[in-house]
Amino acid sequence: MNALDSLLNGFGTALTPVNVLWAAVGVLLGTAIGVLPGIGPAMAVALLLPVTYGLDPVAAFIMFAGIYYGAMFGGSTTSILLNTPGESAAVVAAMEGHPMAKAGRGAQALAAAAIGHFTGGMVGTILLVALAPTVAHLAVDIGAPDYFAIMVLAFIAVTSVLGSSRIRGLASLLIGLTIGLVGLDQMTGQQRLTFGALQLADGVDVVIVAVGLFAIGEALWVAAHLRRRPADPIPVGRPWLGRGDVRRTWKPWLRGPFIGFPFGAIPAGGAEIPTFLSYVTEKRLSRHKDEWGKGAIEGVAGPESAASASAAGTLVSMLTLGLPTTAVAAVMLAAFQQYGIQPGPLLFDREPELVWGLIASLFVGMVLLLALNLPLAPVWAKLLRIPRPYLYAGIMFFAAIGAYAVGGEPIDLVILLVIGLIGFGMRRYGLPVLPAVIGVVLGPNAEQQMRRALQISDGAVTGLVNTPFAVTVYAVIALMLAAPGLRRLAGAVRGRRRESRREGGADA
């Protein structure tokens, strides 16, 4: 039986009234939970694991898939409207989405995100059906030097593209890398930057960092300027995408899945890297470069499409290899084991109804997510009518609840406040926030992959560049670093040619 026949059988399973109901419940729960800062899809699935003990495995996993996609969209809702990411994959959405919301275009940003999620999820799931065995095979061949090269690419890109200068981008990245060092050394078990506090041995959770830098930092910044500026509510604007918006977003919607899906499928992947790379790509390709940082709709459409496609990509490694590439996939793997099912190469033969019913339910969930959330975009945008003092007080309240929910430790609230003050200082001195979050997310993993590559090569630095893939990535990095200088050189050469022509014309 080929993949298409199996998928049609899966639709027969997923479209039964009971399973459609569970998919709708999952999408609604996921969106509602994703809107709460700090409570992402992984925690939502983990909290609901005990609830599903009495459910049929197919129904349980269809609901989990709905929660996953719904929580990713819910996280982007608070990122756009309140500058408060519900989870790490939604961090990039705040970069352009929140300025759009402050300019009265919150509904357009939410609509671009909803359609981006739908497009990315659809394309990503089609790629899952068509390419799962091939992508899984390629993922097995990627080694530590390749992972490290990809992460160095992300670091260089983040310091080159964001902010007013590379120095400030690098400073922000170093702040994030330093926060990422807190905790136990993964290779030796020694404590680093914990100052003797046992509660810091596990490190600082990336959700606390994201919420602190974005939400608390933004709230403190607004509070510091409320006396200078009137606390008027932010305008909501018209609740639909215009023709100009569609012309600017349809290409990012289609490009995003091809960036997000491969990264979701590889180990150490997830949505953080592809959402950022999509942001960088759209910024470089955009014809409206003056709008970036002030509310460019492409900066919402592309990353959100990439994030949704990466969610489909994570299922490739989990279903075919039993290898979870994200926290959500790890929780879902535990759920599989709870039902006595072991994901791996034989899963498609042993549990075809479950696997193809789950994959078909992703298509159903995408349609439900769009149908439920696109009409709700103006409703969500009305949150911005709340006067700013009450709005940001509420943001700080929910941010504190979300941070406490991550680990259940009072020290998490202290860490949240400290990181919020760092975020306030970064805004004061013009440092972009996203490089710091990228440093926290990727820093520990980059360190681990680098040390593994050096161990394999007995400490030889050449061990970091001993694969064709790594060499190719470093070549791309070299081009990125050289590009501004080459542009300036080309501009100078063109200027000299124009001057020489003028002088020649004057002599004639």
TrEMBL record:
Organism field: Streptomyces tagetis
Pfam families given in the database record: TctA
Keyword Magnesium assigned: no
Domain of life: Bacteria
Name of the protein this chain belongs to: Tripartite tricarboxylate transporter permease
Keyword field: Membrane, Transmembrane, Transmembrane helix
Zinc listed as a keyword: no
Annotated DUF112 domain residues: 21-437
Chain segments annotated as transmembrane: 20-39, 109-132, 144-162, 169-186, 206-224, 315-336, 356-377, 413-442, 463-483
Chain coiled-coil ranges: none
